[in-house]
Task: structure prediction
Amino acid sequence: MKRGAVLPDLRWWHGLFLGAGLMYCPGVVLVLCVLLLPVAVLMMIDTRADRQRLVIILFYIGAVMVGPLHHVWVERGAWFACVRTIEDETLLILDWCALAFAWLVSEISTVVARFIGGQRIRAERIRLEKRVTALEEEWGLNSHA
Amino acid sequence: MTAADEILIGGRYNVRLDRPKPPVGGCDAYAAHDVSVPGAPLLALAPQTLRARWPEYALYRHGSVIPFQAQEHHDGAIWVICSPLPGPALSAGFTPWPESQLIESVIRPIAELLMHLDSLGMTCRALRPDNVFQEQGSRRLFLGPLGLTPPAVHQPIVFEPLSSAVCAPHQRGDGTIACDVFALGVMILMLCTGKVPLEGLSDEEILQRRFERGSAAVYMAGANIPVGLVSLLQAMLSDTPEYRPAPKDLVTIAPSKMFSSRGRTLARVPLVIEGHQLRTPQAVAWFAARYSDTFLSLLKRRVIGKWLHHELDLVDVARHIERLVVVGGVVGAVSSKTWILMQAVSLLDPTAPLCWGERWFWPQALPQMMANALLQEEDSSVRQDVFGFVGLLIGTPDLLNKAQLSPSLKQPLQHFLRLARQSSMKGQEQGRRIVYHANHYQPCLSEQCWDQRIIQSAGLARWLEKRCAQQDALPGDSLLDKHMRSFLNVHATLGLMRSIVEAPVMGRAIWMSDLQMVARVQQKEDTGSLPNIARKALPHLKEELRAWRSKTLREQKYAQLEQLAERGDLWALLCFVQDPGDLGRDKAQAQDAEREVEAIRDYISQEAERLNVTQQHARNLGEFCCLLVGIVVAMSSIWYEFCGH
Result:
């Protein structure tokens, strides 16, 4: 996938598969489309989103999707069951929240990692500066202050 | 009586400084006694300056000289212990002696002494009433110990022949045995007449009369002298040294022995200088120096030459003296007046001392004169004259070759030049060193320790130690002054030591070089530990330790230095302070430290980049965490969906 593209680079056989899916199990395709909508939105909004991030987000979305898909499987892809599933607000909210949660986890861990790294650098600098002062004191080096 | 008034010399002789005796032969004298023989009184003499040939005089023994029992060093000063005086000095009073007595107990023994001295190449130069002692109850005379003063320093002008009477006391030099014969003659004259000739006249008057009429004539005029002694005295008191009898002629003297006294050749027509009628070339020489301008104008008008030629038949002298004015031939910065006068005097009287400007002196006495001049004020005329002459002589050796001087002046001058070349120094330092080179028994001339009569370098070190114990700061803020430095340097070379420090530098380095000198003295000679000097030097040594760059090492070294200073071993101190190996290590470590600081600074300056890298890392880490959490959430969701119910 080209980086920065708003839409995925679609080919003719994508349409073939979509048509086949719509033909044989339209309910499942409907559920998938609705549940994967946040990913599509994200791809359109976040121009920097790469494949790695999409994969990560897919895990979260996937976690939400386990329940409905299982339900659809149990109902054997019945249209009404599918429509009922996507009419469930809790599911939709959860689906969107998964995206937000993914973002939150990513940001928080980044911030924490950055803080720890900064802390480490600061500690090292303080240690080195102490060493410099000690050396200058000991050997009477004129500081470059 | 306190301990300070009593000193023990050589572990044997106890000197009572609180009981001074009248001076003997120009030296301070104190009562003393032998510790092992407490009953016998002795006399301790404290000579200020010994003669250069002191070892020979110290070994010399003669029946007519008061012998001394021991010479010992105490705190670097020499003490001479001799038996007590046999009786009062002649200057204390005496009755006239008859002729036979004089011959028996004065002329023969003392002539024998002089003959003996002459055979050893020595002179006495101390025949004068206050140095001749008469044994109580008998008519025997004893001379004070020889060699305890510079030659002829204390001789009254009456007892000196004209050739040295014209010189100031310190400028008389060793002289010859003929000078002693003259002094003996005056002594005999004094003993038979009962008084010193020409008593009560000023030195200038005495000289003037002697030059105008001859010493013998002036001394013997109107005196009641035994007939048998007249010819003897006339010969002995002759103004020409060759005319005086030799000591060996006097030893064999018998009553009424006749001596041929060759009269002086007198000019028929006197030469008149400033109203003085002069009949001999000697007199002209002396008055020439006194009235130099008049003399030079006479010389230029050729009056002198003609007078010498016609009246005295001194054709050669007349020719040479005429040529002086014509040739001139001034060397260096000598004024032509001084130059011509010096040579003219030497031509007129070959037995006269050197006449330089206003001053008469024998070249042998130059080191003694320099020592004397160094004790004077910096700007005294003596000092300027003496050092002016010495500087000129050393600076232009050509001077000697060009000058027409008698051999008795030239040879000692050449000897002096050889002496001067012994040290590689130049200028004032060279002058100071010549003094010590010429006389190894010359006390250190520094005005701080002149009273201490220090002639040994170990003694000087101990004296410094004592002085450093006092709280007051050292003058000039240095351990040694220039005289002490020259003294130590010369004494170091005498002991075949390598000369210590040749070129002193200013400031702290002076202290270091001084310390080095004293340390070397301490090392070579037995001075004991010198903790006071070490303590005084401590601040300067600490300065020296600044060369170490490590602060903690310095602190350690300060502590060690203080401990070492307490032990008072200066050489160890110097080695400790100047340790090149340790200093090199320290320097290498300092360079390492510098490099390390540099590296750390470089590292710190790249902090922004590293911060960027960390942020990138943090983002990756965040994504990774996010992925992990996602996987966990997905797995737990699956587990919940299929197994949770």
